[in-house]
Amino acid sequence: MLAVGMLAGSEGIGGIDFDAPAVAQDIGTVALAIILFSGGLDTHWATMRQVMAPALVLATVGVVITAVVVGTFAWWLLGSFTDIALGSDGVSWTEGLLLGVIVASTDAAAIFALLRRGGSRPHPRTRALLELESGTNDPMAVVLTTAVLGLLTGVSATHVAAAGVDVVLNIVVGAAIGLLGGRAGSVGMARLALPAPGLSPVLAVGIGAVTYGAAEQLHGNGFLAVYLCGLVVGHDLRVNRDMTLQAVDALGWLAQITMFLAMGLLVFPSRLLEVAPAGIAIALVLMFVARPVAVISCLLPFRFRVDEVVYISWAGLKGAVPIVLATFPATVGLAAASEVFSVVFFVVVFSVAAQGLTLGPLATSLHRRGIRARSTARG
Q1: What is the rounded CA–CA span in Å between residue 75 and residue 93?
Q2: Structure confidence at residue 375 as a pLDDT band (50, 70, 90)
Q3: Who's near 318: CB < 8 A, 6+ residues apart?
Q4: In this structure, what are the phi and psi dihedrals at residue 16, rounded to the nearest 5 degrees?
Q5: How does DSSP assign 235-246, residue by residue?
Q6: Domain count across the chain
Q7: How confident is the model at residue 288 (pLDDT cuts 50, 70, 90)?
Q8: Each residue of 44-89: pLDDT tens digit?
Q9: Closest by Cα among 194, 184, 247, 197 to 37
Q10: Can you give the residue range of the structural domain that contains 354?
Q11: CATH, residue 46
Q12: pTM, rounded to two decimals
């Protein structure tokens, strides 16, 4: 869909002028909420409890490790080679770190879309970890981006510390509202006598929407809230269960298609070509160095199998959230804001293309290796 959107854009054969990041952000927000709710409905609570600790460590400490590795490389690369530098004098380490924190988080929409493909389905524990990580790491990426921008613009350390407190409250409030909303919604769906079975999916989506809105109004993480709401509703759902899951799943696919199409329309290929050398280098370090280092460091205490670690390392896809965060530098008047946005967009497109196309074959290969290893062990 990204490719279709790019072809339909102002520099493609469609000629559609869609230079509207704010509209794309709104589309992405609505789509992501639907996708997360759909994913929560289809996730087993027992499996989720097993991966709660490692997923949260990966969503917090893992984001920091990824940001530092990518940021340090970006500082070395962009500060050393003036032909691809951001600005005339390259970048400082703090400016490189800004690029790192923006692209550090995995994207829930991309993860959920790929994990639903038949050939990309990993072990249930691995899938649950990736879904929970991608659904909860956005607040950490946001607070790190805000903090680094504060350092670049001279904001006091007090404001940076306050941002750290905000992210903790954001997660706690979002989780609480998600669990409460899911429980209340489950009771309502069990007791309400709907006039037609087809209204069950409508009611379920409405419950998710209300939960998301309540969390956002109370300064909680709406995405985490709607995911946990879907998790609780899916666990308790008994009436018209199959119909509800299928209908919400279809809505989730429609949301994914719409979101990636909008992202593709927003791309200007000519701008991406200008930052291609830097973008490719940063993307490769992100995929082959930063993400694996973060995953291995965070999951080492939890005794995950080697094949699970390999899959999780490669499944750190980027998507709409880094693109949204890449608009933050422009709001504070950073000189290289447009270049930052272009580099981040290139990294996202490269990540979706390279990792998205190879995740399925990787899952198949790891599965076959696991079968052969078990057969050898028995023999």
Answers
A1: 5
A2: very low
A3: 103, 105, 106, 107, 110, 286, 347, 348, 351, 352
A4: -80, 120
A5: HH--TTHHHHHH
A6: 1
A7: very high
A8: 777 778 888 999 899 889 999 999 999 999 888 776 543 444 444 5
A9: 247
A10: 2-378
A11: 1.20.1530.20
A12: 0.76
